[in-house]
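Progress report, Aim 2. The chain analyzed during this reporting quarter is listed below.
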Amino acid sequence: MDSHFGLMNVWNQGDFVTRAVALLLIGMSLASWIVILIKALDIIRYKRLAKHSQDFWHSEDFATALNKLGKDDSNPFRALALEGREAAAHHRNTKAHLHDALDVSDWITRALRNGIDEFTARLQTGLAILASVGSTAPFIGLFGTVWGIYHALMSIGSAGQATIDKVAGPIGEALIMTALGLAVAIPAVLGYNALVRGNKFVLTKLNSFAHDLHAYFVTGARVQSSVEATVVPLKKG
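Predicted structure tokens for the chain:
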């Protein structure tokens, strides 16, 4: 590659502003990839937990079912099951005070919804970084390009002539900033969209699990959707 082009040449010949823009874009790229990798691994883990959550209902009692979800406190399905159990127990123990204001169905619904909302907030952590990088990186790169072209034109004006060998290098270096901005923004946008789809899948599974838990704690059985609605009993333990 011609020595007039490339990030190293931009860095060596650029001024403070050009270097600051390049460092900012590189930092944004690193932040984006860190978020993408961490959140992608989280989604893969949550999908695996969602698949294993079906084993919860193939148990003789609630205690056995809870053990099948493991001991990991970060497991949203286990946390939701515990939230539902605690809400049901709390309602039974304080029924004399709560039954006039809130029935057991509404109380458990509220507890499960709070659990889902807390997990949703945790699941969406980091997406704001990707959205910000995807929307601002092209403009930051464009600013670096404009700044580089300005200084290139100033140099040409000082030299008094504009030959190809004098124009190609500085303009090419300036355009590299645009390419760098796009190289930072595109993975951030694609990663954001992929993570949003993954989060939606996990939340759909979690909401379905919460629906089954609600039916279990209110009626004592899990409702399954089919041609005819059936219930799967699970002993309380």
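The first helix runs from residue 7 to 13. Residues 1-5, 225-232 have pLDDT under 50 and may be disordered. These observations will guide the mutagenesis work planned for the next reporting period.
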